[in-house]
């Protein structure tokens, strides 16, 4: 096929996919290569069972437990099993992971892990890993379109209905792009969405304000299924120093190295519990009017071992070796998104999704720390491998037997139309008020009502509306989704 595979996004998942594609590949990114990618901001590192006392089975078990037993066991086994090989491949493209004086990997411990298995490059791991893969892409045959926005998917009707066996009618034929010269269509043999998450839809977030779910919006408007959009992981230790834009992150590795959380000077939680539990505990202290700080003063050589954290703190007049660091939970990582099968296929023939934009089933209801970079690497590589097989299969290209993913709920599909655009700050405040760390039906319904008039014309409002609908549909708390009006809580109280 002469048309290229189009990869949308230049974070780690998109870069790995593009690098692994056999045949013509076009990578489209809204800024410079890697600019704005969440993977560039990852501090902690990448999780892989490479320690002498570790195993992929233990890594899989920890992932399953941290996800509140809601993950896909086969996907968990697939990704964690690929961890050691991913590490070798990343080292082969120049990632210089930190080592001990004896030359072994210097593995960290983070919340939810039963072993030290976090490989890192100081506290700039995401930037080091993503940049290394970007350099490899730049040396290869991939054509890169920078400063170019993908506006929409181009979808052709197949003229038949395969919904009975879980397939969506039609197929992707390309993308509509926009750059300084205007808009134009690009034909594609296949499209890979690697557009990142939607954490920027919350007021307090570690994500870029541009991370508003553009990939989810264009996919959902095309009738592609999404799931678990209500599952947003709130990182418990964002640096609460005021200002605008993404909140600086105080990496999980700080707590793994001995930093403790204090509320009005008193420790109140086991810092190495899963993130959803720690975030809820921090939020409850803040709601009670107490000031919460991360105390990293006891961390050995904290300035040397965590230079990025030190720089972030210094910018707001704090010294992590001497000062308590004000913290609060912030929207950090989306466990839900575009629903994919274990090959990365969506419900729409010809469309794959990888990385944070995809709901892979790896994370369940709560992501295990440092599994995101591993997921990005594995899903990007596996999607590329599947595309190579798919483009050679005429029956598959016709949409027959395409994917295990069922069709979207028609109630969630809203076509583009005229209407008002909501100021992003208002979207953020609305979603945070109704779908923050703790939620209830009244707040969620108010969010839906406020956003509803804008969903046809405003992509950010549309994705936030989808998040709220998912939150309303899930009445019981699980993982990162905490309903204070969970009916099972009342039952438990009555029987206690």
On the 0 to 100 scale, the average pLDDT is 92
Find the count of extended strands (DSSP E, 2+ residues).
18
Give the termini separation: 64 Å
> Can you summarize the main beta sheet?
5 strands, parallel
CATH domain topology of the largest domain = FAD/NAD(P)-binding domain
How many alpha or pi helices? 16
The percentage helix is 25-40%
CATH architecture of the largest domain: 3-Layer(bba) Sandwich
CATH superfamily of the largest domain: FAD/NAD(P)-binding domain
Structural class: alpha/beta
Low-confidence region ranges: 160-168, 491-496
Read across the widest sheet, the strand sequence of neighbours is: 5-2-1-9-17
CATH class of the largest domain, anyone? Alpha Beta
Counted up, domains total: 3
Evaluate the radius of gyration.
22 Å
Outline: globular
- The fraction of residues in strands falls at 15-25%
How would you summarize this macromolecular structure in one to three sentences?
With 496 residues, the chain is α/β, with parallel strands linked by helices.
List the helices and strands and how they pair.
Elements lengths: L4 E4 L3 H9 L4 E4 L17 E2 L8 H11 L6 H9 L1 H10 L25 E2 L5 H15 L3 E3 L3 E8 L14 E9 L2 E6 L2 E4 L20 H8 L4 E2 L4 E8 L12 H5 L3 E4 L2 E2 L7 H13 L4 E4 L6 H4 L1 H9 L9 E10 L2 E3 L11 E3 L4 E2 L12 H19 L3 H4 L26 H11 L6 H11 L7 H15 L13 H9 L1
Parallel strand pairs: 1-2, 1-9, 2-5, 9-17, 16-18
Antiparallel strand pairs: 3-4, 6-7, 7-8, 10-16, 11-15, 12-13, 12-14, 14-15
Helix pairs in contact: 1-5, 1-11, 2-3, 6-15, 13-14, 13-15, 14-15
